[in-house]
């Protein structure tokens, strides 16, 4: 008689499959690195996906062996307690940073901090599983299940919603000085001190380009995804959903093309902006539904400084002015202007460490941010209003392969199917070990793309 596979075995198999899909894609990403001079600068600080995934696998094995403790999606009290501890930890860390040298006071604060961190660590695993279950339930309720749900009637969410609460990777963003363009994106270690970030930027800037090291809130290039451990509940939910959705999209035309951009095979800035903006819209809606379903409260918009400084409008004006300077070839004037604006933002209470072309190149791919000049957000929100459900909206946009498809959809013309089963197959095989050499060869022979 055949025996049903145990939960630990199923979880282990799924983990190995997904890690096997993530790692090969990273091989291509690593091989498509920029020139040698830049590589020599970043090499000591690069992030090792191999090492991270192996560590995650061993951590996961430990949890798999302890799967006897089930969690209830309605156990919101545990989640609330966890994020209360996160808030207390951040408050004490800020107090320590501002302490005036009173050693006795600092020792007391550090002891309290250690106690709170221990309590947080105890609740972390259970909190993650509860949030995963809550998000999974809302996705099922919305009918957003897996890349094949159009063809198979299986109520299975894939990829599984799983994440780690940790310090995510840093990202080195590089733009030319004469225009705003995301030319390179290089993964760096999560454990960089401010001095190291500034040293990297200084060396890269000396090459005649603009650079910025960005501390990410989440990262979908590994499985389980990485989510920052110091965020509040609402922000954590949003990042978890956003990173999961990137992995979901990777098996659909829109996300597959983003995968090709990420590994350097086929660059397309419009596809990048559509992916990031779409993920933000979906994450906002799903996370709000989780909050209202399991935490019986509506999220209150931040009204601080409402009648005073308008950050969004000021940033939009700054971006427009910088574009005008650069269009006229006035690079030094643009950089001087941005530094002056940075001081202005800081004086108004908005800390920006570095405001330059790379800053706008990074934040500009999120079309809902004021640093962007892309019309993608307006087009997507219009399409969402016209869609009967979130699932319909996701199905429409996930099938797109260009910004032209989005424009056609907003004009009432349904985008073509784009052979979605083929894209699912390609997404899987592109991440497989054997086709990696083909992907590299195709990149070298770029005219075929």
Extended strand count: 6
Oligomer: single chain
> How many angstroms does the end-to-end distance come to?
52 Å
Shape: globular
Sheet bearing the most strands, described? Answer: 3 strands, mixed
Which percent range fits the helix content? 55-70%
Strand order of the largest sheet: 1-6-5
User: Strand share of the residues?
Assistant: 5-15%
Mean pLDDT: 83
Order of helices and strands: HHHHHEEEHEEEHHHHHHHHHHH
Cα Rg? 23 Å
Secondary-structure map:
Layout: H1 7-31, H2 36-42, H3 49-64, H4 76-98, H5 103-142, E1 163-165, E2 170-176, E3 184-188, H6 194-205, E4 209-215, E5 218-219, E6 225-227, H7 233-249, H8 253-262, H9 269-294, H10 311-327, H11 331-347, H12 357-363, H13 376-386, H14 390-398, H15 403-410, H16 420-430, H17 436-444
Parallel strand pairs: 1-6
Antiparallel strand pairs: 2-3, 2-4, 5-6
Descriptive overview:
The chain is mostly helical and 449 residues long. The chain has a domain at 168-217 and 230-296 and 309-448. The chain is 59% helix and 6% strand. It is built from 17 helices and 6 strands. It has helices at 7-31, 36-42, 49-64, 76-98, 103-142, 194-205, 233-249, 253-262, 269-294, 311-327, 331-347, 357-363, 376-386, 390-398, 403-410, 420-430, 436-444, and strands at residues 163-165, 170-176, 184-188, 209-215, 218-219, 225-227. The strands form 2 sheets. Strands 1-6-5 form a 3-stranded mixed sheet. Strands 3-2-4 form a 3-stranded antiparallel sheet. Strand 2 and strand 3 form a beta hairpin. Helix 5 (103-142) crosses helix 9 (269-294), helix 7 packs across helix 8 (253-262) and helix 13 (376-386) packs across helix 15 (403-410). The relative contact order is 0.11.
């Amino acid at each position: 008689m055949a025996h049903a596979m145990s939960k630990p075995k199923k979880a282990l198999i799924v983990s190995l499959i997904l890690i096997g899909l993530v790692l090969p894609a990273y091989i291509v990403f690593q091989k498509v690195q920029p020139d040698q001079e830049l590589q020599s600068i970043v090499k000591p600080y690069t992030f090792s996906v191999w090492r991270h995934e192996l560590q995650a696998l061993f951590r996961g094995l430990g949890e798999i062996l302890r799967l006897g403790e089930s969690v209830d999606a309605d156990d919101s009290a545990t989640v609330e307690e966890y994020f209360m501890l996160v808030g207390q930890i951040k408050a004490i860390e800020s107090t320590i940073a501002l302490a005036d040298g009173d050693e006795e006071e600092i020792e007391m604060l550090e002891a309290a901090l250690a106690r709170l961190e221990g309590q947080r660590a105890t609740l972390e695993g259970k909190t993650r599983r509860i949030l995963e279950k809550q998000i999974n339930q809302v996705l099922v309720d919305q009918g957003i299940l897996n890349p094949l749900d159009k063809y198979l009637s299986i109520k299975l969410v894939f990829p599984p919603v799983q994440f780690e609460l940790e310090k995510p990777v840093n990202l080195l963003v590089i733009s030319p000085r004469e225009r705003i363009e995301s030319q390179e994106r290089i993964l760096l270690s999560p454990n960089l001190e401010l001095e190291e970030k500034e040293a990297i930027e200084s060396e890269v800037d000396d090459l005649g380009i603009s650079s910025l090291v960005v501390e990410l809130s989440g990262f979908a290039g590994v499985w389980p995804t990485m989510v920052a451990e110091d965020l509040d509940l609402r922000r954590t939910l949003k990042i978890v959903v956003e990173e999961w959705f990137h992995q979901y999209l990777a098996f659909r035309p829109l996300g597959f093309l983003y995968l090709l951009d990420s590994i350097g095979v086929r660059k397309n800035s419009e596809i990048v902006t559509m992916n990031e903006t779409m993920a933000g819209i979906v994450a906002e809606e799903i996370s709000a539904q989780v909050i209202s379903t399991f935490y019986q409260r509506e999220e209150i918009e931040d009204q601080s400084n409402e009648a005073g400084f308008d950050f969004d409008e000021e940033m939009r004006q700054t971006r427009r002015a910088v574009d005008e300077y650069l269009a006229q070839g006035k690079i030094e004037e643009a950089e001087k202007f941005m530094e002056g604006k940075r001081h202005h933002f800081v004086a108004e209470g908005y800390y920006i460490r570095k405001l330059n072309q790379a800053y706008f190149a990074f934040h500009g791919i999120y079309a809902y941010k004021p640093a962007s000049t892309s019309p993608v957000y307006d087009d997507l929100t219009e399409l969402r209003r016209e869609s009967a459900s979130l699932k319909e909206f996701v199905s429409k946009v996930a099938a797109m392969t260009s910004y032209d498809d989005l424009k056609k959809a907003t004009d009432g013309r349904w985008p073509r199917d784009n052979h979605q089963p083929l894209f699912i197959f390609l997404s899987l095989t592109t991440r497989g070990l054997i086709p990696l050499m083909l992907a590299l060869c195709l990149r070298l022979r770029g005219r075929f793309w």
